[in-house]
Amino acid sequence: MRILALTVMAATALTNSIYAASDMEAVTKRLAAASETLNEMLQADDKGVPRELLESAQCVVVIPNSKKAGFIVGAKYGKGFAVCRKPGGRGWTGPAAVRMEGGSFGLQIGASETDYILIVKNASGMRKLLEDKFTIGAGAEATAGPVGRDLSAQTDAQLRAEILSYSRSRGAFAGVTLTGSTLRPDNEDNAALYGRPVTNKEILTGTVEPPPAAAAFMSTLSKYSMRKTG
Fold this sequence. Notes:
Elements: H1 2-43, H2 51-55, E1 59-84, E2 96-120, H3 123-129, E3 134-135, E4 142-144, H4 156-160, E5 163-169, E6 172-175, E7 182-185, H5 187-194, H6 200-204, H7 215-223
Parallel strand pairs: 4-5
Antiparallel strand pairs: 1-2, 2-5, 2-7, 3-7, 5-6
């Protein structure tokens, strides 16, 4: 019986380590995709996300390769990461894993993949990200963000918005409205990334240091927000 028990324990430990390695690989790939999305959408100059907005942002959410499918009733689902300014406004916290879910109605057929970036502009928007579930449009609207380098040409409504949102689908960049979509923590991805259970609140308030696997993503953030990093 003892040999059997030890065998079962060893098999369980091996299975858990395999799952942990698999989870970490998936999270690492998603971080790389998020870094690529951020880099490409900020490099697009006259067709992309204005870099000035990232430099002054309180938080940023990147959802790469979000899946969208539907026949009359549509649905979207994506996983990505949120980061916020460290206390004092200099530098970024580590990435907190998030899930985005949402539905829509209307004439729509087919499936697609879309990358999303949300620019959270103030502390009020940051507090929404710390909630267990945050529904865009319920207390905080996500306005389609301005595209290009000339912010002076944008409307006051866009520049006053709490959250600005962008999408990239089939190579085209655009501001997008995500009202009704929800953001919530992805605790399993956080555990895989940080090696232990950790909450989005701990990560986004700067009490947890960024893990080594996030180095490339953090480097991309710093590259486009030099005035605020430290």
